[in-house]
Structures are given as C-alpha cells and as structure tokens.
Amino acid sequence: MLKEVLQEEFSEQITLGVTGASGSGYFLCLLQALVNNNCQVYLLLSDAAKIVLKTEVDEDWPDELVALNIFLAKRFNAKDKQIIALGSKDWFSPVASGSSAPKKMVICPCSCGTFASISQGLSNNLIERAADVILKERGLLIITPRETPFSTLHIRNMLTLSELGVTIMPLAPGFYHQPKSIEDLQEFMVARLLDHLKIDHQISKRWCE
Fold first, then answer.
1. Among 19, 34, 42, 50, which lies 20 to 30 A Cα-Cα from 62?
2. Which pTM does this prediction carry?
C-alpha cells in the first residue's frame, strides 16, 4: 500500500546509480532535474563516488543512510521520500527485484569497471544488481561512461551492452549551444538524458533553436 501511495504522489520512479568515474557535476545536475520534474529517485552511490564527489566539488555527504537521506532532502529541496538513498548491499530494496524495481535506470557517471561487470551479468553490489534487473525485465538502462581513451576491452563491453539494448551515452557535451560555463556543459548532457528518459524539460537549447 505504501508503494502505491508513493507512486501516485510522483510522476515516475527512476533508479540513479553513481560510480567512481569522474563527472560528479553531471550527476548532481541530473538528480536536481529529476527532483524538479517530480520523479522519485532511488539513489545508489558507490564508495568511490563519494571520494570523487569530495575531490571534484568539495562536498562531504554522510555515510550513515538515515543521515544521508535527511541531507539529500535538504540539499536538493526534495519532498519526503522523493530521494531514497540505498546501501551497496541492500538486497531487500525495491531496485533489487524485478517485481518492484523502476523500469528506468541511469548510471551517471558510469565507470568502465561497472559496465564491464554489468556486461558479464555480475551482481557484486546493488548498482550492478539493479542494472541486471533492468536488463532482464527489458527496461530502459542508460550508462554514461566518462573515460578517455577507451581500450579495446572497454569497447567490447559497450558493444555487448548495446546489443542487449542498453543506451550508451558518453559524457561528451556538444558546443553548438555556445556554452559559457561548466554548468552549461553539464546541462547539455542532462538534457539529452532527460530526452531519453522521456521527461519534458527546458534545460538546454536544442539544435537550430
């Protein structure tokens, strides 16, 4: 009953995985956009992601889940239960089962190690398990690698995922919108992610606009 009430309150549910790849600004921008669009977000944050977050934007997020969820609600001006942070081994969470997981998931940024594990069907942590659930349930999985150059092994793993229907969207913003700041570049990619999630937005200028 509680799950049904929450589903009625929010426009839709999204699983957002965050790994240790560089690009914290992208996921911060995306999470805020999802909150602003009244989505309920299951947030899966790896330990490495927290280290990168501190390094890139100098933010210290609580390690304890109750404190983290309180912090996130305030940090992103979210409704109660709009952002639900989960532990890496929380196998009893909704995202770990095809009977209850959201049908859409984004991993942003996505490390090469994470998409390698997903391509091989491994489920060593909740991010990998949630992605595996999306694949087996024929949902929408978007991964956003941020690495350069890609090795042949990286490319093979991405090909495997692409053949399984995964959308691979490298964090490589365009410049036709004449960006003036790092935020403009981040918003460009978040706009493309929202397009693929079929969420209306007015975040970034489109081609020929």
1. 34
2. 0.93
